[in-house]
Amino acid sequence: MRLNITGMILISLALLASSANAALEAGKPTVLITGANRGIGLEFVRQFSERGWNVIATARKPDKAEKLQALAAGDPRIVIEQLDVTDYPRIEALAERYKDQPIDILLNNAGLTPRYSTAFKRVKGVDFDTAMRSYEINALGPLKMSQQFMPHIIASEQKKIIVVSSKGGSFAESPKLPMMYSYRASKSALNMLMYTLSFETVKTGVIVTLISPGQVNTTEDMKGMKLPPGSIEVDESVTKMLAVIDELTMEDNGKFLNYEEGRVVGW
Fold first, then answer.
1. Under a CB-based contact definition with an 8 Å cutoff, are residues 212 and 238 in contact?
2. Do 168 and 138 contact (CB within 8 A), yes or no?
3. Collapsed DSSP state (helix, strand, coil) of residue 213
4. Cβ atoms 98, 21 nearer than 8 A
5. For residue 238, with 0-12 CB atoms within 10 Å meaning exposed, 13-18 middle and 19 or more buried, which class applies?
6. DSSP E strands: which ranges in 3-129?
């Protein structure tokens, strides 16, 4: 009996789902990390891997994520998935693929950060296409991920949604300078969306927490640039964020915390 195209697609999706889930070890906690190909996201993959977790690591272009591929080659519990957080059908398909997989931590890390060469442009230099893309990636992306993977998180033991935000989106603690219009606005929007979500998740025991990673030294993106005072290395930022994440309780639901010692950041 010849299968029709729809049947073939369904079988293909089932095979993909079974192969992805087969790599995840039963009985181990699971984290899904967006933007896992470099910087903070890549370091989260490394440190969760060292802890023995199952890691679903997403990247827009996995074929070019050589460092991520190298980590996955050394740990069968790391599964790499292609994902752009503005591609809603892809997010929905990925959620469906892992529908039977509890996810202890959804770590929304993917983001669009301005280059330092353009960060200090005044209002006449605002690129509105970039501003809209910043909002789609930095604010709506994490909301869509949270929406689609909520059942997976509710089904887990730890039940945590972690969002990498920025003090740049804080009215209280952002630089008192006319800079990074699009980025700062997108992070403020992100903070409000997640704050609003926290009133809903409290009913299901899911903790939604935003974390500022600090001024992180991502030298691979700032070659030739003088690093800002107070910059820290990626491994220090992630190590300290993980210490905060480990200690989260429902008391931290809806809060914006600093990477160091979990201090509350003013909105």
1. no
2. no
3. coil
4. yes
5. buried
6. 30-33, 54-59, 78-82, 105-108
| Each residue's pLDDT tens digit, 226-243 | 566 778 999 999 999 999
**Separation of alpha carbons 162 and 241, rounded Å:** 10
Q: Do the Cβ atoms of 249 and 160 come closer than 8 Å? A: no
How many CB atoms within 10 Å of residue 17?
16
Q: Which two tokens stand for residue 61?
A: 């272009």
Residue 251, both tokens: 């008391």
Bridge partners of 36? none
**pLDDT digits over 116-137, tens only?**
555 667 778 778 898 999 999 9
Q: Would you identify the CATH topology of the domain 23-258?
A: Rossmann fold (3.40.50)
| Six-digit token string for 197 | 């979500």
Q: Distances from the Cα of 27 to the Cαs of 19, 52, 58, 70, 129, in angstroms?
A: 17, 11, 22, 25, 45
Cβ–Cβ < 8 Å for 262, 213: no
Q: What does the block give as tokens for 257?
A: 């915390």
Ranges of each domain in the chain = 23-258
Report how far apart, in Å, the C-alpha atoms of 1 and of each of 4, 6, 13 are: 10, 14, 20
